[in-house]
Design a protein that fits this description.
The complex is a heterotrimer. Chain A contains 14 helices and 9 strands. By secondary structure, chain A is α/β, with parallel strands linked by helices. Chain A has a 7-stranded mixed beta sheet, with helices on both faces. Chain A is globular. In chain B, helix 31 packs antiparallel against helix 32. Chain B is built from 34 helices and 19 strands. The longest helix of chain B is centred in the first third of the chain and has 21 residues. In chain C, strand 6 and strand 7 form a beta hairpin. In chain C, helix 6 packs parallel to helix 9 and helix 7 runs antiparallel to helix 8. The chains are: A alpha/beta, B alpha+beta, C alpha/beta. At the B-C interface, helix 1, helix 2, helix 10, helix 15 and helix 16 of B face helix 1, helix 5, helix 6, helix 7 and helix 8 of C.
Chain lengths: ~350, ~800, ~450
């Protein structure tokens, strides 16, 4: 039955600090991408041991994924047990206090104790095992704490090299994600076995996410929308927000879409003060995203379309994104392309 | 199916998007593409591509992967050689007419045929390109059946290896697969103690107890189990070989005009004896009417299941219930079995005759002769003087311990029975580690291949002699031997072991039909069904019938009980005989109770299981395993709210399930006229049976016989499947890609000859893999694994759930 | 679809698994010997009782954690031993999941249960890893007559493939001596009896001595025979014969051991005949002998396969004529789920009988149970969906005053089962850094 199915859509590993609304919009975005079968969310990890935040992230995951059961399990959210807990954004707490007209809570927090979370290394290892070779990617939108630990976790580096095609990191405003854990960042850029793409602060600043969409596109499918609610609670509306993390996720999922230009290959090094430097070199495994003004509209449209997409039941049988591309490429004939793209479905007998 | 997984396509598709992004990434190791023979691209574009693109890819593309199949990658000619498994599947679907399905515009037949011929042509080209490879059979440990038979033929001792040794695991559906037959300390321990037991039994060394022991089983103490009104059963341990007096107690009496009844006495399912039992009231006056009968039989040591029963006792059928059946006034029944013994057996032990070919008292020369003769047979090859000398040491050792010469021989025999030369069938290689060098196996090795293939036992003297004389190479001598062996009664082992596993008849012992729903299911019925299939299979072999008989023979083998069960009149008595079938209710194995019973659930039939059974065992096109997260179809409500057919049809509405079930279930429904224990029926619960169906290829049928007729159209496929299974069994290894060619050749000769079964056997025996073997490269896979040195391991601190919970 | 490449995933996994054997044990042994016996000198015993097809989790998992309150329905039979066992939540066997191998969860979860290795999906090329009970047996087994006992209740399946392309070897066996060598369970009570207590035919010391002299020289003879034979054979053949040789060595070791202690254990039970048809009776016979074997220190390690994973045994004795496995695919139909709950309860009830016997057996000032770790568990949680996380697991006995029982301990989600194995190995006195897919030790067993 499996024969000829080619490669299924790629698995996403999203590791974030979840300290900005951008980080949550990014969670929404990757589920939007999953709905379009551009990728499948493998596992989400948080770089801070903050149960309250995880509670919210898990609830958003449940919102998109639907409850566990019926052959689709809700993976645990990964959380380290050491390190600074940090502040829990109010916007992640208040939603749980909202009530429906009948007085029942709108959202349920199902993470009350550490046992409802998972150890990041174990989770990442277990879900990597389930990926096809070179068919998964990492999106990092926080300090590289978890990643660095994973790299040192026995056997994991080889596993990453085998499974992960590339990692895209959003360094965040003022490169806070580097400075947040300099030691980790060093380990990441020095030791990550596959290519790394970096979305610098300027990218996110150049591509503000339009707050107006919250009342339009987001409101459309469902008035009770956890992401929209958080957005409204984040700060007084209306406001737009930079898309540091979203830009990273969007490139990661659609590298061939031409949303961004790329620098020449090179090597990024991190100084003890957290300063990053980029040295071009042909064999370098690192590249920087470069904003392309011509693409701005297209990108922002994609943000809105994907992040506001209503929850889509994940297909049981992974469609063959790669194989489609493959089919077109190889055969290079229109019929195949058509079959890959336009044909709506099997002709009805 | 595994073949698909290793198909090289995914690798390729995986890499492409990567290349398109540019020289950005160093291509990972996985880009390496296997060397494969070129494919006639022009021919492909002419004959294959148009149909694939215009007819198939509509439903089998990247976004619509009907049945989980995307054919786009297969628009590339190179896939024909790179991913043959997939193409064989494609061709098979088209050939069977299963694809394109109804409702899809069908290209003209000649175009379809052209496609098939082209692809098959490419296959043959590919096969011709590969150098003939006999493959290689790993040293084969005797499995339990082979051990038991070999001991029996070697020493005339019946050792129940099947009860003493752990079950042999099976692979490819057979339990004689060399790579699977592992050996564990427990088994080793058992080999050692078995050798002691067997040797001492063979020499008749265990002294019988001074006084005979009496042990009895009766209904009162529940040590005797009631199977039905006229059959009882008891498990009894027999501690010594010897003669025993078996006494039966018959409480009660029947009417003065009651006819005598025949009573059978079985041990482990084998009929040992039948006697007449008088049923009239005895002239003697008892307070409770009672009579008894006894006879003497030879019983071998071991745990045995004894059964006694009145055969075709019509009288009990006139009784209305158990109360009557066990009332001393109304009936006479079997109330107790008593064993008295052992008594020194009147006959000299056959085993001693086999061992003591001369009188050890006459001196060392004779002892040496005896030991040499034993080793010669135990090792199934000529033995060197050195080997004999090695064994003679044991005779000396025993004597040094103050024991007799016979005890010395016994000890030497023990050693032989534990030796790898006895326990394993090893074949020597001139160049064990060079896969390029293949060679004929020696005549003596060939003899063992033959005898374990057809007899599941050691070669007999005649076979060993011609082999040792180097005559077995000679095709005519070989054929003469094969012919002799196929008709020898030892060939029953081939039916037991090959057919028993091919048709899954062995599972008769593990299935447990619900006694409430199926009171008709009795041990006798079970054994009768087994016998029917075994005798039928053997008949097809010995009478050299065409294998199409397996599908719809016009005859079968029945005794009175089974005939009645099938609703066939005119068969009298407990003995089985060939019976010609006048209706088409029965015919072929798919209409035999055994097969129908093993392919059902305990409480109901399952068309899905039966369909799968046909695809697996008859057509050789096993359905792929269900997708990871689809639960097995649940048809437990069947007969209650909704008919099984309705349920399954609902299930098939799901396109994913449909892709396989559309075929499985339809075939399975073709057998719905037979209930879960193979009885003919026309309704299931309150729902009438409707078995009509049409297969994906459009052919349709109305009756079970109709379905069999359709199956007959697939003779080449059926024969291919059977050849593959016979080869697997004969060689004790799975079939590999390089065996295709042999199988195809054999199938051609089969077709040419009208598919006679013996032809298949002869062809297999003459085939390259059966006659030759080759060396093998030393790889990490086959040499003992070196454990990876793990110098500086890093553990991460485990979490103390509670503690953090408090944070 | 996995593709052979520089570092195949399986090799990678196996690397983790066999790392355990690779370790230099000798230095690790010193603390080991101390740990494996507890004050008072009594050894610690370890047993695994495996039940198939998962469980109906609502009747197994309570809402609370910590100290036992009202036991969940399936565990009711364990009420009398409330203070003697601990229930563990969230343990996961990632290697039981499909990962990239498609259907066959039953074959996988049973094959990998004690090995923590993703077994090779094949009918013929069996590849697993050494199971952790055997790692322990290799170390401390020398101290007892039998390094370990493998027991079962159900005859191995005769024909056909056992789960969507997984060899029956994976479902027929729990313990694995090596990657390729499963240890088939003993099913026949009589066979077990004779193994433990001899045939019952009394032998004079002289006869015994002679027998073992003969046995030893026979084993020497065939060993040497094998070496001669091997020279002419190819690698796979040799590998077979190496299995044979290592088995011989094991038997020789047992002989030596038997020669040392002439004390014949008196089982105080009648020698059983054959295999009882009744499940409960069969289990009682077998488990009684386990208790005796533990008590007499004939072995310290037992693996017990209640029935085969994926098995379809009906349970008429409790009014369930349908097969177990088909029932577990209940698709949330209440009446089917109820039947499965009944089967789960029935299994636990049998097991509880064994626990009772263990508890009734005094050892020093404690009970045999106190000095044991009896794990009762399943390789699947929900059998309907084939879930491999939150596997039903209880440990009965305090492992020598170590485990703080009488409560439910819940670990973090996805915590590998192999972490528990590492901790148990510590208790058995075998210190290993890694096993299977372990990510560390499972702590908290000893924290009340």
């Amino acid at each position: 039955m499996q024969f000829g199915r080619g490669k299924p859509s790629a698995g996403v590993f999203y590791d974030s600090a979840f300290t900005t609304i951008d980080d949550i919009l990014t969670e929404a975005l990757i589920y939007g991408l999953q709905g379009k079968n551009d990728c499948r969310v493998a596992v989400i990890t948080c770089s801070r041991p903050d149960l309250a935040t995880i509670g919210y992230v898990e609830m958003v995951e449940r919102y998109y994924h639907g409850p566990a059961g019926n052959f689709s399990q809700l993976p645990a959210i990964g959380m380290p047990t050491s390190g600074a807990k940090g502040e829990t954004p109010k916007a992640f707490v208040i939603p749980f206090t909202l009530k429906k007209l009948d007085g029942t809570p709108v959202y349920k927090n199902e993470v009350s104790s550490v046992i409802e979370t998972g150890d990041p290394n174990t989770l990442i290892r277990n879900y990597l095992e389930a990926q096809n070779d070179q068919n998964a990617f990492f999106v990092v939108a926080g300090p590289a704490t978890n990643i660095a630990s994973a790299l040192e976790f026995r056997g994991m580096k080889d596993l990453i090299a085998a499974k992960i095609k590339y990692l895209v990191m959003a360094t965040g405003p003022g490169e806070v994600n580097i400075k947040g854990d300099v030691a980790a960042a060093k380990k990441l850029f020095a030791g990550w076995p596959t290519p790394i793409f970096v979305s610098g602060p300027e990218i996110g600043d150049a591509l503000p996410f339009p707050g107006a969409s919250i009342e339009k596109e987001f409101a459309a499918p469902n008035t009770d929308h956890p992401v929209a609610d958080a957005y409204r609670l984040w700060k007084p509306m209306p406001y737009d927000t930079p898309s540091y993390s979203m830009s990273a996720a969007l490139y990661a999922a659609r590298p061939k879409e031409g949303y961004f230009k790329l620098s020449d290959p090179g090597t990024i090094t991190v100084g003890d003060n957290g300063k990053t430097s980029f040295a071009p070199s042909a064999q370098g495994k690192h590249q920087l995203l470069i904003a392309d003004p011509a693409q701005k509209e297209k990108i922002i449209a994609a943000y809105v379309e994907l992040a506001s997409a209503k929850p889509a039941v994940r297909q049981r049988f992974r469609p063959d994104a790669a194989a489609a591309a493959d089919g077109q490429k190889k055969a290079g004939d229109p019929a195949a392309a058509a079959a890959g793209e336009k044909r709506p479905g099997p002709p009805k007998p | 199916m595994l073949v698909y997984k290793t198909s090289s396509r995914p690798v390729f598709s995986a890499i492409l998007p990567l290349l398109t992004v540019g020289a950005l990434w160093a291509a990972p190791a996985t880009t390496a593409k296997p060397k494969t023979p070129s494919v006639d691209a022009a021919g492909f574009d002419a004959n294959v591509k148009p149909i694939l693109r215009n007819t198939c890819s509509g439903c089998h593309n990247a976004t619509v992967t009907s049945g989980g199949v995307n054919l786009l990658p297969y628009l590339d000619p190179v896939t024909v050689s790179e991913d043959r498994a997939a193409w064989e599947k494609i061709v098979q679907k088209i050939q069977s007419g299963e694809m394109p399905p109804k409702g899809i515009p069908r290209p003209p037949q000649e175009k379809m045929t052209a496609l098939v011929t082209f692809v098959q042509g490419e296959f043959e080209k590919a096969d011709a390109a590969v150098k003939p490879d006999p493959g290689r059979v790993t040293a084969r440990r005797l499995n339990r059946n082979e051990y038991r038979n070999t001991i029996h033929d070697l020493l005339a001792v019946d050792f129940r290896a099947d009860k003493t040794f752990p079950t042999d695991d099976s692979g490819y559906g057979f339990d004689n697969i060399s790579d699977i037959l592992a050996i564990s300390p427990v088994l080793m321990e058992k080999y050692l103690s078995a050798a002691e037991t067997i040797a001492s039994r063979a020499m008749g060394a265990d002294p019988l107890p001074k006084k005979p022991i009496e042990a009895s089983a009766d209904l009162k103490t529940k040590t005797l189990r009631r199977l039905d009104f006229s059959t009882v059963e008891a498990t009894q341990r027999v501690d010594f070989d010897g003669d025993y007096t078996v006494r039966f107690g018959f409480p009660g009496e029947r009417t003065a005009d009651a006819k005598p009844v025949k009573m059978g006495f079985w041990m482990d399912g084998q009929l040992l004896k039948t006697i007449e039992v008088e049923m009239k009231p005895s002239k003697l006056v008892y307070f409770n009417p009672f009579s008894d009968a006894e006879f003497k039989v030879y019983l071998p040591e071991g745990d045995h299941l004894f059964r006694a029963g009145f055969i075709d006792d019509d009288f009990v059928k006139t009784l209305k219930d158990a109360k009557e059946a066990y009332s001393d006034k109304k009936n006479k029944y079997i109330g107790s079995i008593t064993f008295v013994g052992p008594f020194a057996s009147t006959v000299e032990k056959a085993s001693r005759k086999k061992i003591l070919i001369c009188d050890p008292k006459t001196g060392q020369a004779c002892v040496q002769k005896i030991v040499a003769n034993l080793a010669h047979h135990a090792y199934r090859r000529p033995v060197t003087p050195a080997e004999v000398a090695g064994l003679m040491k044991f005779v000396a050792m025993a004597k040094a311990q103050g024991q007799s010469t016979e005890q010395g021989i016994q000890l030497a025999l023990e050693a032989m029975l534990v030796s790898p030369q006895f326990l394993f069938r090893t074949e020597r290689d001139a160049n064990p580690t060079d896969p390029e060098k293949s060679h004929r196996v020696s005549d003596v090795e060939l003899a063992s291949r033959l005898s374990y293939f057809l007899w599941s036992s050691m070669p007999d003297d005649e076979l060993l002699n011609v082999a040792e004389a180097g005559k077995l190479k000679d095709a005519t001598v070989l054929d003469a031997q094969v012919r002799r062996m196929m008709t020898d009664k030892k060939a029953a082992a081939f039916a037991d072991n090959f057919a028993g596993q091919w048709l899954e008849i062995r599972n008769l012992d593990s299935i447990k039909p619900d006694p409430v729903k199926f009171p008709a299911w009795t041990p006798e019925l079970k054994e009768a069904m087994r016998t029917e299939t075994n005798m039928f299979f053997q008949d097809v072999l010995t009478e050299n019938r065409p294998i199409s008989d397996f599908i719809n023979a016009k005859y079968t083998f029945l005794n009175e009980m089974l005939a009645k069960y099938y609703g066939i009149d005119g068969v009298k008595g407990p003995d089985f005989r060939r019976v010609d079938l006048t209706t088409d209710q029965r015919g072929g194995i798919l209409a035999q109770g055994s097969v129908l019973a093993v392919s059902s659930y305990p409480s109901r039939t399952s068309p899905t299981i039966r369909g799968k059974y046909i695809l697996n065992n008859i057509l050789g096109t096993p359905p792929p395993p269900p997708p990871p997260d689809v639960p097995a179809l649940d048809d437990s409500k069947v007969g209650a709210e909704v008919s099984l057919r309705k349920q399954l049809e609902a299930h098939r509405a799901n396109p994913v399930c449909a892709s396989c079930h559309s075929k499985m279930d339809v075939l399975g429904f073709g057998l719905e006229n037979y209930d879960a224990i193979g009885k003919w029926r026309t309704a299931d619960g309150k729902f009438p049976i409707d078995i009509s169906g049409s297969l994906p290829n459009g052919k349709s049928f109305q009756t079970a016989a109709g379905m069999r007729a359709i199956l007959m159209d697939s003779m080449p496929q059926i024969s291919h499947c059977l050849i593959e299974k016979v080869m697997t069994y004969a060689l004790g290894r799975g079939m590999q890609a390089y065996d295709n060619r042999t199988i195809e050749q054999i199938n051609k000769s089969m077709a040419a000859d009208g598919y006679h079964f013996q032809t298949m056997i002869f062809e297999v025996v003459h085939s390259l893999p059966f006659q030759s073997r080759r060396g093998e490269l030393v790889t990490s896979q086959n040499s003992p694994p070196a454990s990876p040195g793990d110098t500086k391991p890093k553990t991460q601190p485990a979490v103390k759930a509670k503690e953090i919970a408090q944070k | 679809m996995t593709i052979p490449k520089a570092l195949p995933r399986r090799t990678f996994l196996r690397g983790l698994g066999t790392a355990a054997i690779g370790l230099p044990f000798l230095d690790a042994m010193a603390p080991a010997l101390r740990a494996s016996t507890i004050p008072g000198g009594a050894p610690i015993r370890m047993a695994f009782f495996y039940v198939p097809n998962g469980m109906i989790m609502d009747a197994w998992t309570p809402s609370w954690e910590g100290k036992f309150q009202d036991l969940p329905r399936t565990l009711k039979a364990m009420e009398p031993f409330k203070d003697d066992f601990i229930q563990i939540g969230n343990l996961t066997h990632n290697t039981g999941r499909a990962l990239l191998d498609g259907a066959g969860d039953h074959g996988r979860c049973s094959g990998s249960y004690l090995t923590g290795i993703q077994v090779k999906k094949s009918l013929i090329e069996i590849k697993n890893g050494i199971s952790f009970d055997q790692i322990v047996a290799n170390q401390i087994g020398k101290k007892t007559r039998f390094p370990s006992l493998e027991l079962g209740m159900e005859d191995a399946r005769q024909a056909g493939d056992c789960d969507s392309g997984y060899s029956c070897a994976y479902t027929n066996n729990l313990a694995w001596r090596s990657e390729t060598q499963p240890l088939p369970p003993t099913l026949d009570p009589r066979a077990l009896f004779e193994r433990l207590f001899g045939t019952g035919v009394p032998m004079t010391p002289a006869e015994k001595a002679r027998q073992s002299k003969y046995r030893r020289s026979i084993l020497d003879f065939v060993t040497d025979d094998t070496h001669k034979l091997e020279t002419t054979l190819g690698p796979t053949d040799r590998r077979k014969l190496d299995e044979y040789l290592s088995s011989i060595r094991e038997v020789e070791r047992q002989l030596e051991h038997a020669e040392k202690d002439n004390s014949q254990v008196d089982p105080h039970m009648e020698k059983p005949y054959g295999i009882p048809a009744d499940f409960a009776e069969h289990f009682k016979l077998m488990s009684d002998m386990v208790a005796i074997a533990f008590q007499a220190d004939q072995t310290r390690i037992v693996t017990f396969l209640m029935t085969h994973e994926g098995g379809s045994r009906p349970y008429r004795e409790i009014g369930i004529p349908d097969g177990h496995h088909p029932l577990t695919h209940h698709r949330n139909q209440p009446e089917l789920m109820e039947k499965v709950r009944k089967i789960n309860e029935y299994h636990v009830k049998q097991f509880a009988g064994f626990v009772e016997k263990m508890k009734a057996t005094k050892e020093g000032d404690r009970t045999l149970l106190d000095n044991s770790m009896l794990v009762y568990g399943a390789g699947l949680a929900d059998g309907n969906q084939h879930l491999h996380e939150d596997l039903p697991t209880i440990i009965v006995g305090k492992g020598g005053n170590y485990i703080k029982s009488g409560r439910r301990l819940v670990t973090r989600r996805e915590t590998p089962m192999c972490n528990l194995y590492l901790t148990m190995m510590d208790r058995m006195g075998v210190n290993v850094e890694h096993f299977g897919d372990s990510t560390g030790r499972l702590e908290g067993l000893d924290l009340a």
